[in-house]
Amino acid sequence: MKDKSICYVAGHSGGHIIPSITHAKKELEHNSNTKILFFCTNAELDKKILEKHEFLNTVYLPITNIPKNKLLLPKFCINLLVSFVKSLYLLKKHNIKNIISMGGLVSLPVCFAGKILGISIQLYELNVEPGKAINLLSKLTTDVNICFPVTQKYFPKTKCNLVSYPVRFNNDIKNITQEAALQKINLNAEFKTILVLGGSQGSLFLNNLIKQFVKENSNLKLQIIHQTGQLDNFDWQSFYKELNIPAITFDYHHEPEYYYIACDIIICRSGAGTLAEILFFQKKCLTIPLQTSYTNHQKYNALELEKLYPDLIHVIEQNKVNNLDIKKLI
């Protein structure tokens, strides 16, 4: 096969970066001569996720979130311009033929540079409700890849291709039994196992929820696998040890498949990637969407999947959830 060069752009979110890596790996399986250029931000999260993927030619751009402080806007605009110029240079240097974007602010300078160079742009909207970046970039393309049929309504003038979410696991992993997975990670098959997933950045709300739950139910035969996130400095391992609850705690894990297989229920946020992986492993979950003043995309993801998989997906809004909701699922 002929050599070809593809660019991926994703950052500031595992929900964007991980499916991009998965897509890139499948490209390499199809054509081992493919050269990958991967644009992301210089955030610590991006570096941590990408550190073990040496097959990617990674470029870190000085992109940050749009600052709330207006005094920081000039610096933000300069970084945006620097990112655009750097993207323009590298896309041309590496003779990139195709740009693949999963969304996010970092996609804007790269895709606009690609448009100027006449490079094909392929967009993936992984959530029900499109993000601002994909909405804007859809004006540069003739079609958009979507994972939920209902997303079509947000792109009335654009062709939408319904695709499967690029889950990072191979089907072979499903042959591992729950008992084998528990043994692999040194947990007890006689205990109920709860997996807590706050997403790549963690969730202080979920952390406090599970903390209160195990305090009030320490008499139950429970063990916890807990993704605490990078922002929580609480000593979780000592906390679980004091309550005599077997636990595994981590902020981010490159290969969490044994955690998925080992658990009985999952308590999580409602990112598209997390929900897609829960469905892949066919696990029951209590999902609590993150809702903010500027986005409800997690809520729409969760409610759409709850309609399709009511036996697995149980959605409760953050201001309504309580410990009884968790206990009912155990």
Quick synopsis:
This protein has 330 residues and is an alpha/beta fold.
Supply the number of structural domains. Answer: 2
CATH superfamily descriptor of the largest domain: Glycogen Phosphorylase B
Total beta strands: 13
Mean pLDDT: 91
CATH architecture of the largest domain: 3-Layer(aba) Sandwich
Show the helix and strand layout.
Elements: E1 4-9, H1 14-30, E2 34-41, H2 44-50, E3 57-61, H3 73-93, E4 98-101, H4 107-116, E5 120-125, H5 132-137, E6 143-146, E7 159-162, H6 178-184, E8 192-197, H7 204-216, E9 222-227, H8 236-242, E10 247-250, H9 257-262, E11 265-268, H10 272-281, E12 284-287, H11 297-308, E13 313-315, H12 323-329
Parallel strand pairs: 1-2, 1-4, 2-3, 4-5, 5-6, 6-7, 8-9, 8-11, 9-10, 11-12, 12-13
Helix pairs in contact: 1-2, 3-4
Explain what you see.
There is one protein chain. By secondary structure, the chain is an alpha/beta fold. The chain folds into 2 domains: 4-162, Glycogen Phosphorylase B (Rossmann fold, 3-Layer(aba) Sandwich); 172-329, Rossmann fold (3-Layer(aba) Sandwich), CATH 3.40.50.2000. 37% of the residues lie in helices and 19% in strands. The protein contains 12 helices and 13 strands. The chain has helices spanning 14-30, 44-50, 73-93, 107-116, 132-137, 178-184, 204-216, 236-242, 257-262, 272-281, 297-308, 323-329, and strands at residues 4-9, 34-41, 57-61, 98-101, 120-125, 143-146, 159-162, 192-197, 222-227, 247-250, 265-268, 284-287, 313-315. Strands 3-2-1-4-5-6-7 form a 7-stranded parallel sheet, with helices on both faces. It has a 6-stranded parallel sheet with strand order 10-9-8-11-12-13, sandwiched between helices. Helix 1 (14-30) runs parallel beside helix 2 (44-50) and helix 3 crosses helix 4 (107-116). The termini are far apart. The model has no long low-confidence stretch (mean pLDDT 91).
